[in-house]
Amino acid sequence: MLKLPNEYLKDVLVRLAHHSTAIEGNTLSLAETVSIILHNTLPPTSRSIDLREIYEVKNHEQAFRFVLEELEQKHPLSIETVRGVHADLTDHLQHDRGQFKTSDNAILGAEFHTASAAETPLLMRQWVDNLNYRLTNTEKATDRYLTISEAHIAFERIHPFSDGNGRTGRMLMNYSLLQSDLPPVVISSQDRTTYIALLAQEDGAELSRFIQKESQTELDRIRRFQNQQAQQITVDLPPKKKGQSLPKKQDSRER
To answer: What is the CATH number of the domain that holds 147?
Structure first.
């Protein structure tokens, strides 16, 4: 996995939480998302805020932490990973969090049928196996972007959970990107129409180009945070000896 500065990880988390939920209709602003995730508070506002929207963005924090922990341990993507991401993202929101759908569902406005509840478990095992196999046997970055894009389209068409599939799919897409040593992607809510159209058209090649462009933009952002971190002075205190206290700061009045 790419070595990412801590400040960048906070930055990409709040942007991912804001835009991924905004694509689904969440009305919280980026500033409000920053306050909720990084400061655990809400900025003063005169409007009424739905508690569900707060959970939608706040849950990204634990889901993103789970993803990073799995990647640090070099765990390949698994059914457990998929369910774990969904469970974290839908915490306090769904009774069936982390469980595949038990009844058939649909996508609003879609002209195709999602997978039935009965066939979903098998399709998801095949989805995980196929994605892992293709990534293991692919070396070129462009081919990996294509593999991840096609897998994302397939995931959204299966629609394995009763709700939260879009947020889960975008988080899993970043799991695969980071696992492949590629920069993550934040799909802006401003690009929602283009993104949804590519999913509906099953245009893996064009979605791959779209994701690759966004990923390279993210790489430039990573480098900026790395430059910022490089200018910081690291202070290493000497180990404290037993029974020794740190020297007191001299009072200016004693000079």
So the answer is: 1.10.3290.10
